From TrEMBL:
<feature type="domain" description="Histidine kinase">
    <location>
        <begin position="45"/>
        <end position="257"/>
    </location>
</feature>
<dbReference type="GO" id="GO:0000155">
    <property type="term" value="F:phosphorelay sensor kinase activity"/>
</dbReference>
<dbReference type="GO" id="GO:0005524">
    <property type="term" value="F:ATP binding"/>
</dbReference>
<keyword id="KW-0808">Transferase</keyword>
<keyword id="KW-0418">Kinase</keyword>
<keyword id="KW-0597">Phosphoprotein</keyword>
<dbReference type="GO" id="GO:0004721">
    <property type="term" value="F:phosphoprotein phosphatase activity"/>
</dbReference>
<dbReference type="GO" id="GO:0006817">
    <property type="term" value="P:phosphate ion transport"/>
</dbReference>
<comment type="function">
    <text>Member of the two-component regulatory system PhoR/PhoB involved in the phosphate regulon genes expression. PhoR may function as a membrane-associated protein kinase that phosphorylates PhoB in response to environmental signals.</text>
</comment>
<dbReference type="GO" id="GO:0005886">
    <property type="term" value="C:plasma membrane"/>
</dbReference>
<keyword id="KW-0592">Phosphate transport</keyword>
<keyword id="KW-0472">Membrane</keyword>
<dbReference type="GO" id="GO:0006355">
    <property type="term" value="P:regulation of DNA-templated transcription"/>
</dbReference>
<keyword id="KW-0067">ATP-binding</keyword>
<protein>
    <recommendedName>
        <fullName>Phosphate regulon sensor protein PhoR</fullName>
        <ecNumber>2.7.13.3</ecNumber>
    </recommendedName>
</protein>
<dbReference type="GO" id="GO:0016036">
    <property type="term" value="P:cellular response to phosphate starvation"/>
</dbReference>
<keyword id="KW-0902">Two-component regulatory system</keyword>
Amino acid sequence: SAPGQANSQINLSLLPLGDHEQLLLAHDVSHLNRLEQTRRDFVSNVSHELRTPLTVIHGYLELLDPEDVPELAPVLGEMRAQSKRMGQIVEDLLTLSRLETQHEVVDERVPMEALLATVRKEAEALSQGRHRIVLESSAGVDLLGSPKDLHSALSNLASNAVRYTPAGGSITIRWQREPAGAVYSVSDTGFGIPASHLARLTERFYRVSSSRSRDTGGTGLGLSIVKHVLNLHQAQLQIQSAPGVGSTFSCHFGMARLLPPGNNDET
Ligand code: ADP
């Protein structure tokens, strides 16, 4: 720490200059940390402030009866849909803000059979019979972590698979053991993602095609949330995709996160 600075951070790195000499580089990144903190606080505050007015607007829109003014019915429908979408963006931003400032999760048993069944049901509700949805669960273990956050991460991947797969396609949700732990994956036969986009996919609001994503009701924050939830569980996200063929999103959990299936009160 630099003298007199409570939150200062200096990054040190050693640069080899030959056989016997090294250069020590000290880089003061305190101001970057403070900027990052300001950005986080700003996003969080704006999201909080937007929540109440949005709830009011949404509430009044629900009260209006399209039959009173039939010529305005399509407009009213669009306003309701957009206010709902804005509400979802605000909720996702608040979730991201919380995840970004959180350093660890309160560990609980996450019963995987029940969670997988829920994820499948949610995907089926979104698909409305347009896709074949298969669940293959052979891991026979539960997870240790935050039930709420893992639910949102795992169901986000399944809902993306539905949203980015044309009608008639297949989606397979898997929960399997692997040598280093267990893997949850979602494979689809959808649009796929060009390789040049893969590295940036988990950035906030990053989209391969904005119009397609908006049409399918996304907020652009789903994969960011997935990435943060996995980080908090020391799990890795792997993405394999081929345009026109489909994608597989896999979450690799280490042994320390696995529990033999059992009662809720064991942990
Ligand atoms: P969005 O709300 O836009 O879906 P996400 O963060 O969930 O936001 O995803 C970011 C982008 O990644 C999407 O806009 C889409 O272009 C791409 N994507 C995510 N999942 C898939 C998938 N299963 N198949 C094809 N593209 C995907």
